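Project outcomes to date are best conveyed with an example. Our students and postdoctoral researchers have been running inverse folding experiments weekly, and each run begins with a structure described purely in C-alpha cells. The record below, which covers 259 residues, was selected by the lab manager from last quarter's runs and is presented without edits.
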C-alpha cells in the first residue's frame, strides 16, 4: 500500500490571500461609493419655507432640532414671512441660511408688505447706536443678522477690547457685504471713545502683540525690519514684510502711528 501526501497548505494560503485582497478591494469600492454619495448635489427649487417637511429639511442640510422648531412654530398657527424670521425660529447657521434663502418664495401679499415696510422705515430717521455698547438683541434687529451672527459680533468685540471703527466689521466671519452695510447705517463707534495709538518706531514686541492683527512672530519681523531700515516711514512700507497681512492694513492703522 502506498501513501501519497499532498501539501494543501500552499493552496490554503493562496485562497486566504485572495480572500483578503477581495475584501480589501470591496472596502475600497464601498468607500468610493460613499464619497460619491456625499458628492451628490441636491438640486434646490424655489419653495415656501413654511412647508418644509422632514425629508426636505434634511435635504437642505437642517438637523432634526431645527426642523422640529419649525414644525412646532407652524403648529401654533403662525407663519414665517422673512428670511430673518426663518433663522430666528429654526436657529439654523448663517452658512446654511445663505445657501438656501435665495430659494425662499413667499406669497405676493407678503412680498408687497415687506416692500412697504422697507419704504416706511426708510422715511423714518433711524437712531444710531453705539457699536461698542449695543446688545445682541440690538444687532438682531438688523435684517440678515440672526442670533448666531449677533453673538459673533459681540464676542469679537470682547476679544479685541472695543471696536475702533466700523471697518473692523470686515473681520466678522459670515457677515456679508450687504448686511455689513446695514449695520454701518445703524451702528457707529462713539466719538467719545478715545484710543491711544502706538508708535510703530518705538514699540516693543509685547506692545505690538497687543494689536489684534499682529502675533508674536510678525511683531519680531516688524522690529527686525525697523532696525535694518532704521525707521518705518509709512504703513505701505510694512507690506514689504513677507508675512504682513496687507489686506488688513486699514484696520492695523487704527492702532498704530508713525513718528
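After processing, the design step wrote out the following sequence:
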Amino acid at each position: 500500500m502506498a501513501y501519497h501526501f499532498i501539501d494543501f497548505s500552499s493552496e490554503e494560503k493562496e485562497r486566504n490571500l485572495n480572500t483578503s485582497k477581495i475584501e480589501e478591494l470591496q472596502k475600497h469600492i464601498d468607500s468610493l461609493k460613499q464619497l460619491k454619495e456625499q458628492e451628490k448635489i441636491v438640486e434646490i427649487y424655489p419653495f415656501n419655507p413654511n412647508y418644509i417637511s422632514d425629508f426636505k429639511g434634511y435635504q437642505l442640510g437642517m438637523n432634526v432640532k431645527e426642523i422640529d422648531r419649525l414644525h412646532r412654530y407652524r403648529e401654533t398657527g403662525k407663519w414665517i414671512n422673512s428670511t430673518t424670521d426663518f433663522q430666528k425660529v429654526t436657529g439654523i447657521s448663517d452658512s446654511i441660511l445663505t445657501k438656501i434663502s435665495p430659494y425662499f418664495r413667499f406669497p405676493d401679499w407678503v412680498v408687497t408688505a415687506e416692500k412697504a415696510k422697507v419704504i416706511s422705515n426708510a422715511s423714518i430717521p433711524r437712531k444710531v447706536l453705539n457699536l461698542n455698547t449695543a446688545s445682541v438683541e440690538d444687532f438682531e434687529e438688523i435684517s440678515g443678522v440672526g442670533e448666531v451672527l449677533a453673538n459673533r459680533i459681540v464676542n469679537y468685540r470682547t476679544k479685541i477690547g472695543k471696536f475702533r471703527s466700523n471697518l473692523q466689521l470686515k473681520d466678522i466671519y459670515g457677515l456679508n457685504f450687504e448686511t455689513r452695510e446695514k449695520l454701518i447705517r445703524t451702528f457707529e463707534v462713539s466719538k467719545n471713545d478715545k484710543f491711544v495709538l502706538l508708535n510703530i518706531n518705538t514699540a516693543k514686541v509685547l506692545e505690538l502683540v497687543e494689536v489684534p492683527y499682529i502675533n508674536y512672530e510678525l511683531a519680531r519681523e516688524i522690529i527686525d525690519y525697523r532696525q535694518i531700515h532704521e525707521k518705518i516711514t509709512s504703513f505701505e512700507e510694512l507690506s514689504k514684510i513677507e508675512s504682513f497681512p496687507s489686506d488688513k492694513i486699514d484696520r492695523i492703522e487704527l492702532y498704530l502711528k508713525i513718528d
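The radius of gyration is 30 Å. The mean pLDDT is 81. The training component of this project remains on track.
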